[in-house]
Amino acid sequence: MPRSAGDRLGDSRLLQRLARPRPLTILRAPSGFGKSSIAAQWLRATVADTADVVWLGADVGGWGADDPAEVFWGALASRLDELEPSEGDGGWGSAREAVADLLSRRTSPVFVVLDRYSQMVPGRSEVDRALTELLHTCEHFYLVVCTREVSSLEVVGAAIVDSLVLRPADLALTPDDVVALAARHDLALTATEAQAICAHTGGWPALVRVILVSSAAERQEGDRATIRFDAGTWFLRTAWQEFEIAGLQEFVLDTSVFPSLTEALLDELMPDRDCAAYLDALLAAGLMQIEHSGGEQVYRHLPAVRLEAATRLREQDPDRYQELCLLAARRHEAVGDHGGALAQLVTAGLWPEVLEIVERRWTALVTHEAHTLERVLPAVPDVVVAQSAYLVAARDYVLDAAQEPARPWHHEHPLGGVLGPMLGLITAGTDVSEIQGRPRGYDAFTETVRRALPGVLCEWGVSRVLAVDLPGALRSFRDAHQVAELAQMPAMSRRAALGAAMVLCLVGDVRDAHAWFERYESAAARDHEVVPPLLVGVADAVREVLGLSRLEPFQANVILDLPLDRSLGGLWAVGLLAKTQVALVTGRVAGLLDELDAAARHLAHDSDSQLLGTLVACARVDLMLSLGQHLRARAVVERLSPTLQSVEVARARSAWATGNHAAAIEVCQRLLRGDVPTARVRISLLAVQAASEHARGRRAEAARAMQMMIHEVDAAEMYASLLYVPRAVLLDLEGDVPGLGPAIARIARLNLEHDMFPAPSAQTELSEREREVLAALARTGSVNGVATALFVTTNTVKTHLRSIYRKLGTHSARETVQRAVEFGLIDEVVSARLSM
Q: What are phi and psi of 379, to 5 degrees?
């Protein structure tokens, strides 16, 4: 059966799709773009090397001749005769008879390619009929026609011979095709590399071959090839001349700066042009892709074509190029894509507009588009950078942050925010004490830029806090303070000092944090301006955080009454975590578990908040332990990925609280033997280890761990960490641990009447066998069902159930399963049978 232009042939690989040549193949591209190149590529991929190929172009047509058809037949006969010369003149009466005789004598296939057939023979209906007859009668004759319009040859030929009609888009290569084609050039491509080539070229066979051949030619022996995406430039510039539809070149040029096109945009750009015809031609040629988005059609040039066209437009008409780039940037910004807008302006060299968008969209750019700043800033001239404090900060800070080697998850700082020091969750990664905050070369900038820098650096510091880049944040605040002091700007000095104190609290360096907070208060005394309410609230919170960390009198309400909502972004969750820690110290935990549960559900749907969501889960564990919900806390921990050390701290703490002291000690010892450079993590682990060793009756080991903890606590002034150890344990070890007495006295001065966590009980720990019985009970709903499932007697099941009832405080199977669901010990779906 003949194939239409829209048909796709079965298998994914090109050689499998087109391995069997048809007597008649029509390669039709309305735009004329690349038909001959695609035909050559198709022939190389599908025709055996031993087959003969005759190629006739439009230059052999008979335009102006008395008999154009005879000129065509004469050229074809001459080429066929060159392949297998005939003896004598063959007795031919005409060139047409010569072609028929030469084809009938063939004993092996010959492929005749008619390039630009629509231009070859004027009034070619007679030639169409003759070629169709030859296809029907000559067994070894294969005809490949490159044309841009439907002809009688296609219609009539399809009715009598096996034929195939293809457009260039129908020959697009898949990644598997590219891998196979590369192997023919001794190139080993990964699936990712092949996918990248397809994305760049749209699978255009000729362009793919050019890239692969160039990449193979430049590869050194023994080295892995580097894919040369730019190798297709010369090919694209040659193929550019094959555009045949009037105005199509101009259409591609004018739309090349836009990553996507819609009908509304085209109406705005070209109200007087028939864009539908251009789009149809480009889609048929495989040079454009289409998708549906938001109820409308979206068109995209192939990346390779778009890049080449934009380069050509910039060279030929730079003013028009800049005009279109400005329009594209405005459209990016209108949909909130500020990074795309900036990239478009930098590409066009529109420097005034670059300065304007960086200053107007600074917060969005550094918070969400740092990767774009990293990519485009090197292209901004220094003379332009010097005109803006924002660009100076972007160059000297944003790029530095982006170029730092990526840390694995377990080396990430846990979070940014004003109240993070309450969390006790800072992990390994960087020795902040080694950071030297010195501004670099700012004397070379104008007074206006220098005075603007402190504010910009403080904004960048806040963004670094939210991005959990605490070293970067500390450097920004320190530099902002130094520049503000030199410029005699007390308001900015105050703000920068408070930011540095906040970050040092997060790191756990309470001593330095206190010193920077004193600088804040000193600057506040010199600044007579009205202090913004938000700054007052942050300062009050940091003051109370420092007081609590040092076990000095503090006002819990300052933190517990903080107004929090999700409009604050990451600070909303950070503030909630801090409230949790203060509530644990004061015992005012009512209602907080519901808030944390809601926060966990919200963060679970935000892929950008994976780290913050994990920390919320750890805070939930602490709160559950304080409420005596030990099994539920352990179930939460077991569902967390152990990539953050904060998760491992929560695991050790929940193991201790559920009476599994050996497991708690094992976690602590394993982490303490590893790379744990921050005092906060070491102190948290030593607290769990001391309490667990004491619970096991190993007094000497408990005192040793407590001695190490006291040393760390004194050095960091993090006395609040002692509250994680039961008061009875501290009092019992006081005589064995020098320095523990004064620490206990600090706790006594706060008049706290409760322990942060209830004393652990062995009864809160289900054995593995009891867990199996509980899960089987939820599935089967009866004692007999459990016995059958576990291959034990009913008496054994009843014994296990009595122990489970005692540990969970329940009195029936139904109540026990419900409580197990609440604690997260079994899945709610599993328990559905018992509730029926």
A: -85, -5
Residue pLDDT, tens place only, 386-408: 888 888 888 777 666 555 443 33
Give residue-wise pLDDT tens across range 570-608.
556 666 777 777 788 877 777 888 888 887 887 776 655
* Strand 288-293, strand 296-301: pairing: antiparallel
Give domain 14-171's CATH number out of 2.40.30.10, 1.10.150.20, 3.40.50.300, 1.20.1300.10.
3.40.50.300
pTM score of the predicted model: 0.55
**Which of these, 30, 22, 29, lies nearest to 3 by C-alpha position?**
22
- What's the CA gap between 247 and 278, in Å, rounded? 8
CATH architecture of 766-835: Orthogonal Bundle (1.10)
Where are the chain's structural domains? 14-171, 175-240, 404-554, 628-763, 766-835
Q: Please state whether beta strands 163-166 and 288-293 pair in parallel, antiparallel, or not at all (unpaired).
A: unpaired
- Asked if residues 726 and 747 have their Cβ atoms less than 8 Å apart, the reply is no
Written in H, E and C, the secondary structure of 440-453 is CCHHHCCHHHHHHH
What is the DSSP annotation of 203-269? T-HHHHHHHHHHHHHHPPTTSPPPP-GGGGHHHHHHHGGG--STTHHHHHHHHTT-SSB-HHHHHHH
* CA-based nearest residue to 712, from 742, 679, 678, 688: 679
Cβ atoms of 32 and 242 within 8 Å: the answer is: yes
Degrees to nearest 5, angle at CA 742 with 736 and 745: 115
Could you report the per-residue pLDDT of 231-263, keeping only the tens digit for each? 777 777 766 666 667 788 888 888 989 988 988
- Most confident range (mean pLDDT) of 358-362, 363-367, 674-678, 793-797 is 793-797
407 in helix, strand or coil?
A: coil
- Mean pLDDT for the stretch of residues 195-205: 84
By C-alpha distance, which of 433, 474, 765, 718 is closest to 581?
718
Closest by CA position to 425, among listed 433, 435, 415: 415
At 495, list the tokens: 């703000």
Q: Cα(192)–Cα(211) distance, rounded to whole angstroms?
A: 16
Gap between the Cα atoms of 821 and 772, Å rounded = 14
Domain 404-554: assigned CATH number: 1.25.40.10
171-185 pLDDT per residue, tens? 778 888 888 888 877
Statement: residue 678 has pLDDT above 60: yes
Mean pLDDT throughout 467-478? 78
Q: What's 168's DSSP letter?
A: G
In percent, the amount of the chain with pLDDT more than 90 equals 10
Strand duo 163-166 + 24-28: pairing: parallel
Q: If you compute the radius of gyration of the chain from its CA atoms, what whole number of angstroms results?
A: 38
If DSSP codes are grouped into helix, strand and coil, which group holds residue 296? Answer: strand
Same fold, 14-171 and 628-763: no
Fold (topology level) of 628-763 = 1.25.40
CA distance 821 to 827: 6
